[in-house]
Amino acid sequence: MSDLKLKPPELKKLMRIMNDCLYAQSREDVLRIIDQLNEIIPFNAAILCRKADKNGAALLDESVNHSYPEGWLRNYYKDKLFLLDPIAIASTHVNGPFTWKEAYSKIEMTNRLRAFINTAEDFGLKEGVTYSSHTRQEDKVDTLMSLETSGHKVDEEYLAIVEYILPHIHEVIVRIDETVRVPEALPDLTARERETLKWAYEGKTAWEIGVILSISERTVKFHLNNIYKKLNVKNRSQAVAKAARYGIV
What we know:
Distance between the termini: 42 Å
Radius of gyration: 19 Å
Order of helices and strands: HHEEHHEHHEEHHHHH
Shape: globular
CATH class of the largest domain: Alpha Beta
């Protein structure tokens, strides 16, 4: 890890973040911590994901989203793009923070990968930094943090701060997940909820699902809210990711 050479004001902010990590108990607390981090290193969006490595692939499950495009996340989990994502793949074997440009430069650029990168850029995800904690424990998941940094300078000090702070944020994510963890048993979804979730997985809007199932948009949203509660998630992209993990869709 590189030595931090921060000015006193930035160092004070970093120490405050570390202290806040000790007491954070919710995703809202994590979002505030990310806001504080943005005062030290600039970025346009951030996301924290739980990550499990399997056969060299990174299986991602969104945990905290700070301004990442919902449309991108919906497609990312629906189409399981994390199995193709060069950033996610690099995170399984790179020990320190790395830029997306570095990850792209080390892969064979196929047409499929180029299409993936172009789509990400269409959603505003053009340049960034990613870092994954590495617990080295089979029964534990890592935390992957990605920052979209277009238009901002990323230097060695920037990467050092990311490397320094992620272990503290990882402990918060682990603590939060222990309090809201989904049971290992399959969630008890009704037939209608499973139908609703299936079409949400296909990227249909609440209105479109209502038309397909011959129910009102309001009823669709009612079913979605019940699904969120049963899966212990906050939004559609998280529900889709968790449903894929359970094999429900």
